[in-house]
Every structure is written in structure tokens, then in C-alpha cells.
Amino acid sequence: MLTQSGFSLQPKPFFSNFGAITTFAIFGTFVASFVTGILVYLGGVTYLIYKLPFVECLMFGALISATDPVTVLSIFQELGTDVNLYALVFGESVLNDAMAISLYRTMSLVRSNMSSGQNYFMIVVRFLEVFVGSMSAGVGVGFISALISFLIYFFNHSCEHFIPMILSSLHAL
After folding, report:
1. Cβ-proximal residues to 5 (8 Å cutoff; 6+ apart), any chain
2. Phi, psi at residue 96, to the nearest 5°?
3. Are 102 and 133 in contact (CB under 8 A)?
4. Residue 3, SS3 per DSSP
5. Which residues contact 28 (CB under 8 A, 6 or more apart)?
6. CA atoms of 102 and 108, how far apart (whole Å)
7. pLDDT tier at 58, thresholds 50, 70, 90
8. Torsional class of 117: left (φ above 0), alpha (ψ -120 to 50), beta (otherwise)
9. Among 51-60, 84-93, 112-121, 122-131, which range has the highest average pLDDT?
10. Is 140 helix (H, G, I), strand (E, B) or coil?
């Protein structure tokens, strides 16, 4: 579904709203994961739910904060909503995964190294390492997919309806 949404997305609204998309994806996911983690921790302190250590609550917040709005995007397409709104929701959902993975891995690192008293600077470095690595991998796969799409379209117009299927298979590999 997301591959089809990516193919049907108009590039102009996506790139003209890229600043807002990255703000929602990075800052929004960061805030959502910490608020969720803190609320889960407070729920445990007040015995409303099972009590977990604070770092594990933050791990849960990072895990649950990444959204997957496939249903929302299909409803937007069906209703013919504004292309800018569609681009914002689609772009945020694609980019927030890297942030959520980075936060989860960072909290997991904090949890495993709590007794060793690891330097906070190293935690920030690990977070940036995972974040930049995830983003680089996503951008790399995107560029390779764009190149494959261009080459298939440029050299053989008769099989252009197979492009989404070919790229979905490559992403699965």
C-alpha cells in the first residue's frame, strides 16, 4: 500500500512541505515517544498498569510512537483531500520510522549499560549513528529504486506497469 502511495504521490507537494514533514517526523516522534513513555511510567507508579522501569517505559514509547497511516492515506485518496495534507501525512509516516528505531536502540543501549555508567555523550553519538545510518539506508534504497524505475521506463516502455511490483520485490529482499 505504501509503495502504491509513493508512486501516486506528486513530488511537488512533498518537497515543498519537506521542512514541515521532517519536523513532524523527527520532533513529533521524539515528543510522542517520551510522552508515551512517561505516561506508561506514571501509570505503573499509580498501579493502574504493571510497573516497569523508566527506561523500559521509554523503550515502549519509542516502539509505539511510529505511526502507520495506511488506512488514513487510502481514505484521503478516496475523498480527494488536499495534496499538501496527503504529502504531509505520507512523508511523516515514511520518515518517522528512522527516528523511532533510533530512539528504541538508544534506550536499549541505555538499559544494557545502566550499571556501567556509560557517558551520556556516547549515548548521543550512538543515537546519531543509528539515526544517520537508518536514514542513509532509506535514501540509498530510494535512489536505487528511482534509478531502476528510470532505466526500465527509458529502455522499455511496454513493461512500465510492472515497476511497482519489481520495486516491491526488491524492497522485500
Report:
1. 70, 73, 77, 90
2. -75, -15
3. no
4. helix
5. 92, 96
6. 10
7. very high
8. left
9. 51-60
10. helix
Cell matching residue 84: 499538501
pLDDT at residue 2 tops 60 = no
Q: Grid coordinates standing for 120?
A: 551520556
Rounded Cα distance, 130 and 124, in Å:
10
154 phi, psi to nearest 5 deg: -70, -40
Please tell me the distance from the alpha carbon of residue 18 to that of residue 10, in angstroms, as a whole number. 13
Place of cell 511510529: 66
In the numeric block, the cell 533510533 is attached to 102
Confidence of residue 102 (pLDDT cuts 50, 70, 90): confident
Please give, one letter per residue, the 3-state secondary structure of 8-68.
HCCHHHHHHCHHHHHHHHHHHHHHHHHHHHHHHHHHHHCCCCCCCCHHHHHHHHHHHHCCC
Question: How many whole angstroms separate alpha carbon 114 and alpha carbon 12?
Answer: 46
* Residue keyed to cell 504529502: 87
A 10 A CB-CB count for 116 gives 7
Is 94 in contact with 142 (CB distance < 8 Å)? no
DSSP 89: H
Q: Is 166 helix (H, G, I), strand (E, B) or coil?
A: helix
